[in-house]
Amino acid sequence: MTADVLALRRSPLHGTGFGLAAPGLTMAEEPFRSLVEVRSPAAPAGELVWRLGPDWWLVDGPPAPVVALEVPLAGELRAAGGVATDVSAHRTTLVLTGPHAATLIAHGCPIDLSIVPVGGCVQGTLAGAQVALGRTGPDSLRVYVRAAFARHLATWLSDAATPYVE
Amino acid sequence: MSRRLDTGGSRIDRSRPVTVTVDGLEIEAYAGDTLASAMLAADLPLVGRGIYSGRPRGLVGVGAEEPNAWVQVLSRGGEPMVQATLLDVYDGLAVELLAGRGRLVAEPDSTRHDTLFSHWEVVVVGGGASGRRAAAAASPEGRVLLLDDGPAVAPLDGVTTWARTTATGLYGHGRLVAVERRTDGDRLHHLQCGRVVLATGAQERGLVFEDDDRPGVMLAGAAASYVERYGVLPGERAVVWVAHDPGLRAAVALADAGVEVLAVLDVRDRIAEPYADALSARDIPVHLGAEVTGTSGDDRLSRVHTSAGDLDADLLAVSGGRNPAVQLWSHPGGRTRWSDEVAGFVPVTGPGDRVTVVGAAAGEPAHRSYLPPATWFRSSTGDPERIFLDPHRDATLHDLQRAHTAGLTSVEHVKRFTTIGTGADQGRGAGVLTVGVLAQQLGRPVGEVGTTTYRPPYLPLSFGLLAGRNRGELSDPVRLSQLHDRVAHAPMEDVGQWKRPWYFPGAEESLDEAVAREVRAVRTGVGMMDASTLGKILLQGRDVGVLLDRVYTNLFSTLNVGKVRYGVMCGPDGMVVDDGTTARLSETEWLMSTTTGNAAAVLDALEEWHQTEWPELDVTMTSVTDQWSVVAVAGPLSRDVVAALAPELDCSASAFGFMEWRSTTVAGIPARVMRISFSGELAFELNVPSWWGAALWDAVAQAGAPYGITPYGTETMHVLRAEKGFPIVGQDTDGTVTPHDLGMSWAVSRKKVDFIGKRSLARADAQRPDRRHLVGLVPVDGVSRIVEGSQLVAHGADLTAFPVPMAGHVTSAYPAGHDGRPFALALLDAGRDRLGEVLDAVDDLVPVPVRVTGPVSYDVEGTRRDG
Q1: Which of A29, B361, B578, B754 sits 20 to 30 Å CA-CA off B807?
Q2: Structural domains counted in chain B
Q3: Residue of A85, A106, A108 with shortest CB distance to B622
Q4: Does residue A165 lie in a domain region?
Q5: FAD/NAD(P)-binding domain location, by residue (chain B) (predicted)?
Q6: Shortest CA gap B116–chain A (Å)
Q7: What ipTM does the predicted assembly reach?
């Protein structure tokens, strides 16, 4: 039953064919990540924890193979003392890597990403869609976009990548 | 005949010939040519015609100062009004000459223009010697960019260099906008700069005289540049008329290139020895204190009239001075003053610490003429109607004199009266000349007259470039529900950035027919709709109830867990700004819904109140709009459908009351079910994490099939709610409507100490009995359609006796409700006191007699919500 219901999930970019693997630039959706917004003075524990603002964090964990109204990660973070909100289905995660990744984003986002260190995160608009941008490496970025904007952003990214695909 | 020299031309590549078509005539050129140099090489003297006079016009400049050579590009998608001096040729380039005005291209522009943001510690504009020095000196400061509008910039250590890039606007806080010309489309650069160094150089200006617009009259420096850059001889026999030393240098360069320089005229009474020697060594006669008085020729120059006699020539090269290029300096508010030493306007008070200016643009001493130049603008004689100050606008000395005669003395007024400097070239050539001539006309010093204000963009920008990739489907973000694919076959209604299904037509069914069928299904059977787009905010903390009591007009803190309450939000002015339901999920968790279009504004407002006025409240807010997919199941048979989907849920009216919510599973999917109704019918809203949205829609459709479940769209939703008198904020309200005006005094607490808008609602004006109230309308004849937006006037009012007193307007109108008859909602002066009255609803002067009713036209007793 659980497996059947899990198989019914559709990520925001399901069926769109979004993705790119070119020299210098890759793009892909990582669907069904466990995403939880936490309000707490101290950084919550986790593998990928982004600071969104004062006392405001986004925790990005692996997909949870459970059928529940909220992902288990939210309950764990709440138990650890933070105010936690499950936003796993509210946003989806796009992963961009390669030397052109930051330039690609600079076609539609006025933020200076070069001063965002590895582990750092900024919020703003990319191609008119509200996003959080987290840096996981010198040439790798994670883009958290609202589910409703995901197809627009995917279309925009695929178009913006045109000069970097040859 | 080709005017191309056998050798020379620093910018052209003779190994790469290209063919260009001008007005259907094929000409040969080289890669690196501009259209202007290609036309000059092909000896095409005509580059355009006067916009009003139709007079033939020739090439004057070599860059952005060119007033005449603006062409219609026909190739590569086409583009109107392109400056030939800045248009790089390519094989297959085709253009048409213009008379000062292009035409829009009807076909979609297939060029790929785009946008790029970048960030720099220092940006230097201009790749000349001063710019390179500034860039090299700045290189230790971090990211340093040197940009230049020429075809190439030599590499510089520690500096990024961009060629073919023109800075078009400088704004406050170090924001610079530049255009990079690329072969596959232009790029609009937004540069955020720690500081900006302007090394924009100076632009040559001419001199004016009778028939100064005849093809063959060029700027002397530009003429020399065509030799140096493109290996093109601008004429065979030349007269050179100058007012400063750089003009003399150009004369020598032209002579050395093989032009027969018949004479040099200098307005000054002496010239420096090195120039005198150089000219004399080339046997060029020099006439001091001399001037050109006119020209002759058919469509091109053949004779130059001067104070020293007439000369047969095909080139008249003139140079009146050099204007420091202070446009970018002026954009963010930098001031300029006239300098006699420079004979131009030079920067003085800066626009701020971030911007400095160097080199010729600053009028630095090294860029001043060897001898103090004369400030000279025009010949002393000639017919004012044939002395062209601004050939691009066909504006003459006569026009300027008319402006003066009309009493105008300010350069800004003269500009607007004569239109000088208002063309696509923005008076880059004509501006300072006009100031000089106006000063002479007024008998005042040039500095006292001053310049007009330079504003961005420095060069014209096409709309296509400004749009960049934000066109077509990317012109604005589209928001899609996570079950969009299931409803995508329906016509869509735009609600903010959302696409929502409008109605679900069957084969050959019209909007009205489909809506009538959908309404009937919900009133008598069961319907389903995608309600996912409503804004959702999760509020957490001990003090959420306190916050809600302050932002809603009614009481929320008393709401029990498991219950839902409808609330109205007002602004501080007491006017309705939003409405929606809020469910209490636990002691400390509340889920608020907002209208589809207002979600972000409501969250922002709540955050602002919390952060600025009530920081002591223990509340956090998180947008979860996209976390949930919501399917509304509505109609008398909805309980059967939900019962089939959620076997664990007791949906009987006694166990699951109106305005309550339950956790359960729906078709195996974890869900929150709410008994909320926007139709007046028994209804359930099924909320699931949105990645199950499509699965939920499928499950509801399947479980509802035995009951004939009917998908419905926003139009039917609007009809259903309008029959119940439920207002839509933003449609039935317009920022001037209080909850009382809507007849919702029941939702305004009288007990609460305070809430946003309470004080304003106590004002006398908010309590006037004749305020506009929400009412219902039906056509008196029972069949006439009422048009949304109609004005309400007295029945039988004479619509020709203006002004016709207006009593209100129609906010929502529908061709048919449950009884098949048209009805409407309206805001009407003292409407609640006028039930039964007959008025005319007027649209486009056609009156429809209507009877005023209460806003609720269906199930007035509210007996249907429990099924």
Answers
A1: B578
A2: 5
A3: A85
A4: no
A5: 163-328
A6: 4
A7: 0.97
Of B469, B620, B689, the CB nearest to A159: B469
pTM to 2 decimals? 0.93
The reported pLDDT for the residue numbered B184 is 82
Query: Which of B687, B703, B720 finishes a domain?
Result: B720
Domain end, chosen from B65, B97, B129, is at B97
Residue A110 predicted with pLDDT over 90? yes
Instruction: Quote the pLDDT of residue B748.
Output: 94
Indicate the average pLDDT of chain A: 96
- Testing the interface with A: which of B532, B533, B665, B690 to mutate, by most A Cβ within 10 A? B690
On chain A, the residues whose CB falls within 8 A of the CB of B498 are 148
Chain B interface includes A103 (CB < 8 A): yes
B620 touches chain A (CB under 8 A): yes
Q: The domain that contains A116 carries what CATH number? A: 3.30.1360.120
Q: Does A99 touch chain B (CB under 8 A)?
A: no
DSSP H helical ranges for B383-457: 397-405, 411-418, 430-442, 446-449
Instruction: Determine, for residues B623 and A107 on separate chains, whether the beta-carbon distance falls below 8 Å.
Output: no
For B440-572, where are the E strands, in sequence order? Answer: 492-495, 498-501, 527-530, 535-540, 564-570
Q: Is residue B228 part of a domain?
A: yes
Whether residue B516 is found in the same domain as residue B638: yes
Minimum-distance CB partner of A68 among B115, B117, B670: B670
Q: Do the chains contact at B691 and A32, CB–CB below 8 Å?
A: yes
**Domain presence at residue A86:** yes
- Is position B220 within any domain? yes
CB contacts under 8 A, A 132-151 vs B, are: 146-149, 151
DSSP SS3 for B514? helix
Domain hosting B666: range is 487-532+627-720
Q: Name the residue in chain B with its Cα closest to that of A85.
A: B622
CATH code: domain of residue B88: 3.10.20.440
Q: Tell me if A89 and B623 make a contact (CB, 8 A cut-off).
A: no
Tokens in use for B765?
Answer: 């004006």
- Looking at beta carbons, which residues of chain A come within 8 Å of B192? 110, 112
> B637 with B664, same domain?
yes
Mind listing the pLDDT tens digit for each residue in B475-496? 999 999 999 999 999 999 999 9
Taking CB atoms and an 8 Å limit, are A90 and B623 in contact across chains?
Answer: yes
Q: Are residues B846 and B811 in the same domain?
A: yes
Q: Does A33 touch chain B (CB under 8 A)?
A: no
pLDDT in tens, A12-56: 999 999 999 999 999 999 999 999 999 999 999 998 999 999 999
Q: Does A130 fall in a domain?
A: yes
- Give the one of B474, B624, B663 whose C-beta lies nearest to A155's C-beta: B474
Q: How many domains does chain A have?
A: 1
Per-residue exposure over B400-431, b if at least 16 CB sit within 10 Å of its own CB, e if not: bbebeeeebeebeebbebbbbbbbbbbbbbbb
Residues of chain B with pLDDT under 50: none
Owning domain of residue A94: 2-6+17-160
Residue B525 DSSP symbol: S
* Residues B590, B554 within the same domain: yes
Measured distance between the N- and C-terminal CA atoms of chain B, rounded to whole angstroms: 93
Same-domain pairing of B794 and B861: yes
Residue of B nearest to A159 (CA): B469
Do B527 and B663 belong together in one domain? yes
A68 lies within 8 A of chain B by CB = yes
> Is B330 part of a structural domain of the chain?
no
CB contact under 8 A, B481 and A148: yes
Chain A residue numbers touching B118 (CB-CB < 8 A): 106
Partners of B336 in the β-ladder: B347
Residue B447 lies in a domain: no
Phi and psi (nearest 5°) for B773? -110, 150
Write out the DSSP string of B19-76. Answer: EEEETTEEEEEEET-BHHHHHHHTT----EE-TTT--EE----SSTT-SS-EEEE-ST
For residues B612 and B638, membership in a common domain is answered with no
CATH number for the domain that contains residue B682? 3.30.1360.120
